[in-house]
Amino acid sequence: MTSNLGADHLVSGLTGEMTMQVARDNAMKDAKKHFRPELLNRLDEIVMFHPLSHEHLAKIVQLQVKNVRPIRRWLERKVVTDISMMIVREEIGDDSIVCIDVNEAKTDLVYRIDKNVVVKIEQTLDVVIHSGNKRGRSNDEDHIVTLTKKIKNEVVVID
Fold first, then answer.
1. Which of 20, 26, 55, 139 could be joined to 9 by an S-S link, Cβ 3.0–4.6 Å?
2. In total, how many domains does the chain have?
3. How much is the average pLDDT of 83-99?
4. Are residues 84 and 146 in the same domain?
5. 133: which residues sit within 8 A by CB, 6+ positions away?
6. DSSP code per residue over 125-145
């Protein structure tokens, strides 16, 4: 069982308005006021969770980013290879957009090719993967502008 009772006291302790020991004591007082003694007596232990430090949060973010990179590389490799093969087989033309989804079994990617597509500037796209950006720019605005001007061998990933 968990509760957020006393969380405001712990925040006050973190911001320096009171010591952490006083904050913990106040949180325990709130728990004793809120829960009946019969319930509290049945509990073996009350554990006060400690807030994460900036160092802990930074480590968590690093682990999350590290775990995303292999997935991104796999997707780029898989998508680029598949799209390249479609271009070689002339399944994708200058005015085509490729929409990518996952199959029902969630084991492979499914490609839908929309041909003779005219993109309006008002349209928004979640992710755009280019076959190459000759101008050296990489921000999303440039990708969308490039896509609206020319749709040659561009890949649009829509979730």
1. 26
2. 2
3. 86
4. yes
5. 142, 143, 146
6. -SEEE-S--TT---SHHHHHH
